[in-house]
Amino acid sequence: MDEESFKVKWDAATRAEILAEGMSRRGLEAAVRSGELVRARRDHYVAAATPRAVLQAVRIGGRLTCLSLLQLLGVFVFACDTLHVHIPRGASRLRSPRNRAKPLRRGSKRGARLHWSPLARDEGGTSACVGVIDALIHSVLCQQARHAVATLDSALNKGMITALDLAEIFHALPAKFAVLQTLVDARAQSGPETLVRLMLRGLGCHVDLQVAFEQVGFVDMVVDRWLVIECDSKAFHSTWEAQLEDYRRDGILASYGYCVFRIAAEDILYRPEQVLASLRGLVATRRTLR
């Protein structure tokens, strides 16, 4: 068996599959002793480089899915403090994610969120993860609506899914989620941007995303053709040099007649009520002055 396939695809293989590929029983035991392979559960193995969340999903008896998988792939999720695992119908002898010798305790916070519904794309094979389409379907069911839209925006923006895939996702979801499809926008560069855009839509504003200005470049969004909003994260705006560049960009935008409002990504995520209040105040003041 090609070990590289484990590293790249996060595969899992049974003992029978490994032996069928030509590895001897003694060779398999040696690979486990050396740490090249890990016995996730009885007769199921993964490569040593497999991410911990994937290993734990296999140990339980399923495949990684939903927020756990998307987070691992770099797709925006608001929070993921529980392991999400898809379990095939009829599965039994589910084990603890931390100890393959112990049964899984249902309802335990140290357990996992189990997804039992049939997959939209059951690709089978040896993958230890569901496909991105099914992970996104599960993510809509497991998050608040606005966070689900941000996750879908992120997957589209990163090129992980297409517009046709998006239609398939909503076709597989209950009809009550259909309204969310109209809110998805692949231009959003980050989860916080999506969340602010949804706040502004709720206030009845017109929002343009990723608008280019001469001498400035692209800004995150322009609201009602007068307000520029930038969603700043610590990763790109923490140094004085970066802040100075921001001030200069804001000055140029002011010379074009635009006001600029910068919002910290941390506040968008964890103080949304205050952010919404600020946006409401700005919008109301502008409308009053007209």
Describe it:
The chain has 14 helices and ten strands. By secondary structure, the protein is α+β, with helices and mostly antiparallel strands. It folds into three domains: 3-50, no CATH class; 58-181, no CATH class; 191-289, 3-Layer(aba) Sandwich (Endonuclease, Chain A). The strands form three sheets. The chain has a four-stranded mixed beta sheet, sandwiched between helices. Strands 1-3-2 form a three-stranded antiparallel beta sheet. Helix 6 packs antiparallel against helix 7 and helix 7 (145-157) packs across helix 10. The longest helix has 18 residues, at 272-289. The protein is elongated and about 80 Å long. The model is unreliable at 1-8 (pLDDT under 50). This is DUF559 domain-containing protein. It comes from Microbacterium protaetiae.
Question: What's the β-strand tally?
Answer: 10
The major sheet is characterized as: 4 strands, mixed
Question: Can you give the helix content as a percent range?
Answer: 40-55%
Globally, the shape reads: elongated
Oligomer category: single chain
* Secondary-structure element series: HEHHEEHEHEEHHHHHEEEHHEHH
Strand content: 15-25%
